[in-house]
Structures are given as structure tokens and as C-alpha cells.
């Protein structure tokens, strides 16, 4: 296990190095180049020349690359030019990070809470009405663009019927105490139940819209996996032993069938992050996804490059953790 | 020794090894399962109709999709667009252009986005996967590390990152931005298949008969590796259309209004969605149906080709 862990961590380092290299090349090729990228279109010539010297753009390219890596490691991404002008890009990121965590974790819980039970039921009734209708629902979930589904939900439940707030993260009148930056958790910790419930109401529609992505994937994986496992000899043995169907389901079928679900949960992080960009934009929800969209529109490249690097890094780290967790559960993986 | 075989004899052996009974029966077997699959037929009919519409669309469209013929009935101040009327089935859009004609003509651009983006991913992946799988060793290691890094960036995020590099986004830049992130997916898939083929008995047989490395790769390993790639390609056409729509929604889509594309139309419609939701519903509906069609087709092919389902 130790050797596997070391190998996986080394791979992680290699991936991060190549990633930093790609980001460097990308930044140099943005329209207008890095000076415009950092200062915007309207900078004065003196300031441009100054920054060119400060960034060392007159130096050889490998020197520039190492300087870039140095800046990134120090967390120096420059100041935001569009999303929240004048603020450090890192601060912009962290004030919005909690919002995206609440959104994506909730969407993932939605996907797991519906995907696993429905996937199990569909597999148990293979070919039946329930199976076919769940399959159709999950396929439509794949085919409907996330942002369009978000629009539909917002249009029907917020604009037309007015059941839920159409946008934002918390109603303006709420005066909540901030502890962690996660609004729902804050409300629970400080026992400000109104504030917590208000945040939940703002999140219900985004959770559903974004949650269809993990739902569709988890449903299909669970269904396929249960179909495979329930035909195994050990399930027949368990039945022959006269175990109750609940025990067989929980201890024998689900425990084995859920292994692929763990792996796919890691891979889903990437889809959730990009889905969050679209969902947050529709609901004007102040997370990092909305910052990315505004950043592109206003060419706020300090914020954009930080978010892209952070998203890719989060994706790689989460998948490494998932692989390690998997190896812990399944000894066969380590041998490879 | 390879040289002891005459050319004709070698070709005969090649032909025997590559197109033996095994290959045809595999295909026939898959077809027999496809024929009875309702998923396949629904998907095939949707995709078939879509392709036909994409081909004949520009000829059957009643109006010029770029001409602002209904501009007289369009008013930004009164927030009015032209209603449905004779000759203009779905009325006009916010620019006074015939909405129905734009939908019909848009089918071709949408199909082009899906197909060409998939081809970029497929050909790029084919080259990388082929090189890695055929040579192995350090070529394989280097190429696969690059692929790993590309895979480590979520595909839509990669597409967005490529999309911002273009100062004036048009249909071509959208296709490139959507297609490149698919390269590593195909490369991994193909390499895995090729590695499995390397170890297989029929490749060993060909090699022991003295067939050279290039024909082994191109005529023995590649044809046998291709079926999961075709399945993947069908599904990637669907995701490419969706990704292109997402790019348009984020303002990175084609700005070329003379070439309507469903994703771009949906992106345009978002600014007026509260007053004219129908401008969003029609292109969205069209995208959903087409994406569903390609997904169903891909799923049906996957089930049919999967050896686990062979009887």
C-alpha cells in the first residue's frame, strides 16, 4: 500500500508540473498577451512597460517559466480586473469558494440519494416498467443542457409560481453571522435557523439542476453494477444459506456493487465543476463558476487563471484520493 | 523468415488472418442484437432524420435565415417580436429574421459541429493511441503522461480555455475548442485496445508467419480495436453538440449570425428568455432530441458489441 501511495503521489507531482507548463503557454497566448491579460486593455504605456520589466518578459523563456511557477507557488496571481476590481485574485477566489462547495456537495448528495436506490430498483426489475422509465429519465438528464434545465426550473418555480427565490445566495434582509463561509453550516452552528433555511431555499433549484448530472451517471453505474453482481455465485450462496433479502442486499450486493460508484464519484468532480459554471450563471449564484463566466466576459485573467488552475488541481487531487481509497478497499488494484 | 514467402502467398495469409470467419460472425452477431433493440431504432430514426434535415435544410428553408424581413414588426422598446403568420411558421426572432428558417438551416451547422469536433478528437486520438500502442516503451510513457494531464482538466473547462484564445470566435474556433478535449479520451481508449490486441493469439500468429510490423498494426490490430472507438465516437457527437451550446451560453460561441447553429441560437435567446421563452425552447428542444438520438444509438451499439452479451 505504501509503494502504491508513493507511486500515485509521484504521478500527481508529474501531472501538476505538466499542468503548470500548459497554463504558462496558455497565458502567453491569450489575446493581447500576459501584460494585457494582467492589466486589461486600457492600461497606460508606462504601466505596460513597467509590468513587462516586472514580469521579466524580456528574459529568456525558461527563466520566465520558473518565475511564473515561483509566483504561483507564492499564491501571487495579481489583482482582479473585472469580477471585483482591485481585490487580490486569491481573495476573490476564497470569498466565493464556500458558495461553490455548498452547491456542488449538495448536487452530489442529490445524485447519490436518488441514483443509488433507483439504480438498484431498476436492476432488480430489469426490463420492467420502472426500469425502462428510470432509464429514459436518466437519458433525458444527459441530453438536456444543464443551463437550459436551470432556466426551466427558474422560469417555472421562481419566476412564474414564485415558490423559491430566482437568484442569489441569501435574501438581502437576512443578517447572518459568518463562521465558516458555508452559509447553511453557519446558520446551523449559530442556531440562526432562519438564515440557514433561507440559504437552503436559494439552493434547492441549483441543486436539482446540477444534481441531474451525477444522478444520471450514478444511476447507470449502479444499475449496471448491481446487474453484474447479483448473478455472482456468492449471492446464490447467500440465498442458499437462507439469509434475509435485506442482508443479501446490504452486505452482499450493494457492498460489492458500489465500488465502481466510488471511482465515478471522483471523475464526476470535473463534470460538477463545469456544470457549476453554467448553473451559477443562470441563478446569479456568487460562486467561483459565476466568477469564471464574468472573468471571461471582462477579460479578468488573474481570476480566470487561478480558477482554472484550482479546478484542475482539485480534480487531480480528488481523483488521487479516490484511487487511494479504492486501493485500500480492493487489494487487487495495488498489485497493478 | 519473411523473405521465403512469396508476395501473393503472404497476401493470402494476411487476408485469411484479418478477415476470417471470426470477424464477419462478430458483426453479424452484433447486427442480430441491434435489429431487435428498440433503443437502436429510436436512435437511428432520430439521427437519420437529423442528417437528412442537415443535408436538405438550406434548400427547404422558406426564407433567407440571415435576412431581417420581419424587422418592421420588431421593436426593442415595446419588447415585441413578429408573431407566427403565413409564410413565417414560428414568427421572427429579436432581429426580425424568420425563426423557422434559422432552425431548419441550423441543423447543418449543428451536425457539422458535432461531426467535425468528433473527427478532430478521433483522428488526434488515433494518431496518439496508434503511436503509443504500436511502439510501447518510452514513446508510450511520454504520450500517455501528456494524455493524463489533458484528462486531468475537465473537458468543458479545457474547451473554455481553448475558446478564450480566439479573439473573434466563429464556428471553426468553436469546433476546435470542443474537439481538442476529446483527443485524450480516444487516445486512451485506442491504446488500451491495442495493448490487448498485442497480446492476442491472432497477432502472434501473424507475427510468427513473418508479417511485418506496419501491416500487423494497420491490418490486424487496428481493425480489431476499432469497435469501442466507434461507440465512443457516436456518444462524443452528442457531447460535442452540448459543449458547443455551453460555449455559446458563456459568450464564447460563434458570433457569425449568418450561420445559425442551435447552440448559438440558444445562447442568443438567453437575454430575452423572460419575454420570449419560445426563442430558447425551440433550439433547446431540437438539441435535446438530437443529443438523445446519438446517445441512444451509442448505447445500443455498446450493448450490441459488448462480448458479455454474446450468446
Structure description:
The complex is a heterodimer of chains A (336) and B (311). With 336 residues, chain A is an all-alpha fold. In chain A, helix 9 crosses helix 11. The longest helix of chain A is centred in the middle third of the chain and has 37 residues. The termini of chain A are close together. The mean pLDDT of chain A is 82. Chain B is mostly helical and 311 residues long. In chain B, helix 3 crosses helix 4, helix 4 runs antiparallel to helix 5 and helix 8 packs antiparallel against helix 10. Chains A and B meet through helix 1, helix 6, helix 7, helix 12 and helix 13 of A and helix 5, helix 6, helix 10 and helix 12 of B.
Spell out the blueprint of helices and strands.
The complex is a heterodimer of chains A (336) and B (311).
Chain A (H helix, E strand, L loop, with lengths): L1 H28 L3 H7 L5 H10 L6 H13 L15 H36 L4 H15 L2 H15 L22 H7 L3 H37 L3 H8 L4 H13 L1 H24 L5 H10 L3 H29 L1 H5 L1
Helix pairs in contact in A: 1-14, 5-6, 5-9, 5-12, 5-14, 6-9, 7-9, 7-12, 8-9, 9-11, 9-12, 10-11, 12-13, 12-14, 13-14
Chain B lengths: L6 H12 L2 H15 L2 H23 L38 H37 L1 H16 L2 H9 L7 H9 L3 H16 L2 H8 L4 H37 L12 H8 L8 H28 L6
Amino acid at each position: 500500500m505504501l509503494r502504491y501511495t508513493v507511486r500515485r503521489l509521484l504521478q500527481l507531482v508529474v501531472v501538476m508540473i505538466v499542468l503548470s507548463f500548459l497554463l504558462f503557454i496558455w497565458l502567453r497566448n491569450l489575446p493581447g498577451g500576459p501584460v494585457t491579460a494582467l492589466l486589461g486593455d486600457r492600461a497606460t504605456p508606462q504601466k505596460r512597460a513597467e509590468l513587462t520589466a516586472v514580469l521579466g518578459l524580456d528574459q529568456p523563456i525558461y527563466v520566465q517559466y520558473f518565475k511564473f511557477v515561483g509566483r504561483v507557488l507564492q499564491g501571487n496571481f495579481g489583482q482582479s480586473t473585472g469580477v471585483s476590481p482591485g481585490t487580490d485574485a486569491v481573495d476573490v477566489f476564497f470569498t466565493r469558494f464556500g458558495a461553490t462547495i455548498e452547491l456542488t456537495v449538495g448536487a452530489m448528495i442529490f445524485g447519490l440519494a436518488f441514483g443509488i436506490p433507483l439504480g438498484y430498483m431498476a436492476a432488480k426489475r430489469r426490463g420492467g416498467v420502472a426500469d425502462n422509465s428510470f432509464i429514459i429519465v436518466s437519458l433525458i438528464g444527459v441530453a438536456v443542457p444543464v443551463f437550459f434545465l436551470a432556466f426551466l426550473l427558474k422560469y417555472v418555480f421562481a419566476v412564474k409560481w414564485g415558490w423559491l427565490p430566482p437568484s442569489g445566495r441569501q435574501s438581502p434582509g437576512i443578517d447572518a453571522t459568518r463562521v465558516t463561509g458555508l452559509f447553511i453550516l453557519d446558520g446551523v452552528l449559530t442556531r440562526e435557523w432562519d438564515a440557514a433555511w433561507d440559504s437552503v431555499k436559494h439552493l434547492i433549484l441549483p441543486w436539482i439542476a446540477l444534481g441531474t448530472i451525477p444522478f444520471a451517471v450514478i444511476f447507470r453505474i449502479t444499475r449496471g453494477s448491481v446487474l453484474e453482481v447479483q448473478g455472482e455465485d456468492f449471492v446464490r450462496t447467500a440465498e442458499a444459506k437462507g439469509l434475509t433479502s435485506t442482508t443479501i442486499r446490504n452486505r452482499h450486493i450493494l457492498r460489492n456493487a458500489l465500488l465502481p460508484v466510488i471511482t465515478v464519484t471522483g471523475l464526476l468532480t470535473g463534470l460538477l465543476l463545469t456544470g457549476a459554471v453554467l448553473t451559477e450563471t443562470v441563478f446569479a449564484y456568487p460562486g467561483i463558476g459565476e466568477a469564471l463566466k464574468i472573468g471571461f466576459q471582462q477579460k479578468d485573467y488573474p481570476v480566470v487563471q487561478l480558477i482554472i488552475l484550482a479546478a484542475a488541481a482539485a480534480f487531480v487531487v480528488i481523483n488521487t484520493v479516490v484511487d487511494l481509497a479504492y486501493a485500500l478497499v480492493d487489494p487487487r488494484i495495488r498489485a497493478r | 523468415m519473411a523473405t521465403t514467402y512469396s508476395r501473393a502467398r503472404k497476401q493470402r495469409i494476411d487476408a485469411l488472418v484479418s478477415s476470417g470467419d471470426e470477424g464477419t460472425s462478430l458483426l453479424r452477431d452484433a447486427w442480430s442484437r441491434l435489429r431487435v433493440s428498440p433503443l437502436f431504432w429510436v436512435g437511428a430514426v432520430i439521427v437519420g432524420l437529423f442528417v437528412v434535415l442537415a443535408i436538405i435544410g438550406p434548400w427547404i428553408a422558406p426564407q433567407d435565415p440571415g435576412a431581417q424581413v420581419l424587422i418592421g414588426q420588431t421593436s426593442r422598446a415595446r419588447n415585441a417580436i413578429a408573431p407566427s403568420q403565413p409564410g413565417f411558421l414560428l414568427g421572427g426572432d429579436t432581429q426580425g429574421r424568420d425563426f423557422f428558417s434559422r432552425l431548419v438551416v441550423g441543423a447543418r451547422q449543428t451536425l457539422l459541429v458535432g461531426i467535425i469536433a468528433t473527427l478532430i478528437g478521433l483522428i488526434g486520438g488515433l494518431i496518439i493511441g496508434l503511436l503509443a500502442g504500436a511502439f510501447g516503451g518510452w514513446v508510450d510513457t511520454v504520450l500517455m503522461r501528456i494524455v493524463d494531464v489533458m484528462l486531468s482538466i475537465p473537458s468543458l473547462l479545457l474547451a473554455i480555455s481553448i475558446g478564450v484564445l480566439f479573439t473573434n470566435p466563429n464556428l471553426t474556433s468553436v469546433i476546435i475548442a470542443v474537439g481538442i478535449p476529446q483527443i485524450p479520451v480516444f487516445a486512451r481508449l485506442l491504446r488500451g485496445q491495442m495493448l490487448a490486441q498485442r497480446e492476442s493469439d491472432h497477432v502472434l500468429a501473424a507475427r510468427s508467419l513473418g508479417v511485418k510490423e506496419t501491416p500487423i498494426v494497420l491490418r490486424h490490430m487496428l481493425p480489431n480495436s476499432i469497435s469501442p472507438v466507434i461507440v465512443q465516437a457516436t456518444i462524443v457527437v452528442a457531447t460535442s453538440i452540448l459543449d458547443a451550446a455551453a460555449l455559446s451560453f458563456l459568450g464564447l460561441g460563434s458570433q457569425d449570425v449568418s450561420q445559425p447553429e442551435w447552440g448559438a441560437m440558444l445562447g442568443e435567446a438567453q437575454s430575452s428568455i423572460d419575454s420570449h421563452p419560445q426563442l430558447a425552447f425551440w433550439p433547446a428542444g431540437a438539441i435535446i432530441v438530437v443529443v438523445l438520438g446519438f446517445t441512444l444509438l451509442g448505447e445500443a451499439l455498446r450493448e450490441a458489441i459488448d462480448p458479455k452479451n454474446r450468446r
